Amino acid sequence: MVVDGPGADDHRYRRARVTDFHQILAAAGERATRGQLERAFEATAAWLGRIWSQHRDVSVQDHVRAVLSAVDPALSDRISPPILAALVAAYARPVLVVPPSVDDGARAALEALRAREITLAVVSNIMRTPGATLRQLLAHYGLLDCFAHTVFSDEAGVRKPDPEIFLIALRAVGGAPETAVHVGDDTVLDVQGARAAGMRVVEVRSGPSAAGAPGADVTIPRLAALPAVIADLEAR
To answer: In Å, how far from its chain's centre is CA 39?
Structure first.
């Protein structure tokens, strides 16, 4: 777990998106009230939830088109490509304006692993913030260059805990499940998902795991402990 804090669908992010959509559409001559946009975002939350429950994902352009269609079924087809691009940018940027906090041991831990020639990759589900923007966030914190590859669910079309998203990352870096270790903070998405892909797992958590869920190989409270536990796993 590299970043902590508000999720990508935090209420502050929702307000920012609604405000920007309202202004962009008004400037384009399209009438959409704030109330309509709020209801559209609620409707797309349910729509996304149905997709995500199948461990699948869609592009953020599809998120935006769904919001527009929930306001007016013809609106998505009516707006011009530049307006759509402006809406996609507005949809993506709130996390950069109000960024989450970072695990203060992340950079040192990742650099220590990289110094041992361990190949690092990101495997991440998105909420409403696209993978392209999450890469910008990692770069902002000086973390992006630690990773040889990044896999985000909106680009892969599949979400954790489906094993395929882990295997996509492994294929990209030339890795094999039996020699790989996944690090994550969710007992279902990370621990069960990585195990289903044939990987060992380090779970980052300060509280108990979900009751009855299979445990990780190792549990740590913060990323600062990661280099030592990876060394231990390598030695087993």
So the answer is: 24
C-alpha angle 70/27/20, rounded to 5°?
60
pLDDT tens column, 22-61: 999 999 999 999 999 999 999 999 999 999 999 999 999 9
Confidence band, pLDDT 50/70/90 cuts, at residue 100: confident
Going by C-beta distance under 8 Å and a sequence separation of 6 or more, which residues neighbour residue 192? 161, 213, 214
DSSP class of residue 79?
Answer: S
Q: Output the six-digit token pair for 207.
A: 């509280």
Q: Return the CATH number of the domain spanning residue range 101-235.
A: 3.40.50.1000
Domain extents in the chain: 3-97, 101-235
pTM for the model: 0.91
Report helix, strand or coil for 102.
strand
The DSSP letter of residue 191 is I
